[in-house]
Amino acid sequence: MRVLFLIDPTDLRRWQAEAINGVLAATGGSGAIAAAAGPPPASLLDFCLAFEALAFRRPLSEPLARLSPTALGLPNVDEGADLIVDLAAATEISCDRLLISVSGTGVAAGAADAIMAGEEPFLDLIAVTGDTQRLVGRWHIAVEDRRQLGSGMSITTGRAIEMLTLAAGHIAAGATLHDLTLPLVEADPPPRRAGNPGRFAAATFARSLANRLERLVRNPPNWAVAWRVDETGEGALPIIAGSPWRRIADNGDRFYADPFVVRHGDRTVLLMEEFPFATQKGIISAVDLGADGPVGTPRPVIETECHLSYPFVFEEDDVLYMIPETSGQRQVQLWRAVEFPDRWEQVAVLIDNIDLGDATLLQAGGRRHLFGTVRPHWGSSWDGLAIFTAETLTGPWVPLFAGPAKVDVASARPAGRMFSVGGSIIRPFQDSAGGYGAGLGFARIDRLDTGGYAETALVALRPAPPLSGLHTYNRGGGFEVIDVIAGGELDVVIP
Questions:
Q1: Which of 41, 208, 284, 474 is the most exposed place for a label (fewest CB within 10 A)?
Q2: Within 10 Å of residue 72's Cβ, how many Cβ atoms?
Q3: 183, 141 contact by CB (below 8 A)
Q4: From CA 368, how far away is CA 357, in angstroms rounded?
């Protein structure tokens, strides 16, 4: 297969070189380049990126580094291609091609405009055939640090590389521009608003200084775990908002998050992430739940060299297991309770060499499925849902299908154990549009097979002020638990 890449020589960046390598690897083909004029990027954009690197003491964003076309090592040919990939969002060209863009403009520049407007970018892949433009895929991209253009732009380019590589693989397998499909977020992006990089950089740097000064004089709100006696029961969607939840107290030196409840024997235990500020590393802690709630203070039960969180706990053949998040070690690990709940041992590595967040297990259709969000190169773990499958608990675990099930910062990341309502499987999800863990929702799984994945959002909730985050829900043993971002003075929270 011969692939022609349209590039704008005046705005060629490293991510485009990586996208070219990904497409050629996926197709096994040969490549060539041709010059095409794209929309002009905002003035001062590169100056803003350099200023950010200096102000925040971080290196320049690698995927945004400029390149010369000669660095691609590809010939200049503009005819005879089996596939044309438009990396320039070309403004004056008419040919059948794959076009990747953000808000109708170039990927990096479009991402910058979205971030400056306080929004998350929508990444579109479009099949252009004749006078027709067909939306092949749409991904809603995370912005992990809203103070920095470079961070969000880099995440968008990382997903662009993944999107193009995935599409190229489908084309190599026989898909055409007329029938190619990728995961598609059912949402319309807001109209593009061109931003001013210089003004954005000055404003965000000023806000950053103000935040630093504020942290010197007071403790900002942090994650907190809250509970209530189960008001939902089996077979119903929980109603979280508007009712009081009792907070588990902390001493101000740590926070608690990611709560899971398990009933085992005659004990009901709450497991959660504990994050001591002194170590800046999460551990797994536990506290017993009596008739009146927590008994005593949470105590550490698992601590390793890497950050731990999201203690997904489950029972199989009368044995309690846990899959804590261990993405810092690039592994999905399986732990077994030796003496519940205080002694655990690692018994297997389910998936190796992967940065997977909030692994959540589901048994359906006679197989096991493992949901989680995968962080690709230069990407985010907030927005890309991946699904793995296996016949047995210890694997081997393999992807259910190629690529992510969906890429959506508003609904991809798991938020707790799945449950059944009216014969349907309900998946709790995190909404990180606007900030990590800003909201929580519940979706009905409509399709789960090797041909693809589909779900329908049923509930989406943002907590009421003064709360500013809500990203986990679980229930068990007669209790329901959530976590919220709350000030230290609150003993009762009302989402």
A1: 208
A2: 19
A3: no
A4: 18
Count, residues in the chain: 495
Bridge partner list, 197: none
CB 87 within 8 A of CB 4: no
**Count of helix runs (H) and strand runs (E) in the chain:** 5, 28
**Of 188, 171, 189, 153, residue with least CA distance to 98:** 171
* pLDDT-based confidence at residue 218 (cuts at 50, 70, 90): low
Helix (H, G, I), strand (E, B) or coil at 481: strand
pLDDT recorded at residue 77: 83
Quickly list DSSP for 399-444: ESSSS-SEEBTTT-SB-S--EEETTEEEEEEEE-TTSTT-EEEEEE
**H or E stretch at 49:** helix 45-55
Portion of the chain with pLDDT greater than 70, in percent? 96
Domains of the chain: 2-214 (3.40.50), 221-493 (2.115.10.20)
- Nearest of 52, 25, 28 to residue 208 by alpha carbon: 52
213 φψ region: left (φ > 0), alpha (ψ -120 to 50), beta (else):
alpha
Cα–Cα distance for residue pair 7/37, rounded to 1 Å: 8
Distances (CA, A) of 315 to 164, 306, 444: 40, 25, 23
Burial of residue 393, with CB atoms counted within 10 A of its CB: 0-12 exposed, 13-18 middle, 19 or more buried: buried
Q: Do residues 248 and 227 lie in contact, with contact meaning Cβ atoms separated by under 8 Å?
A: yes
Tokens of 364: 């359906």
Residue 275 CB burial class (10 angstroms; 0-12, 13-18, ≥19): buried
Lookup: tokens for 458: 């049923």
DSSP 105: B
Which residue, among 428, 424, 443, has the nearest Cα to 364 in the 3D structure? 424
User: Where on the phi/psi map is residue 242: left (φ > 0), alpha (ψ -120 to 50), or beta?
Assistant: left
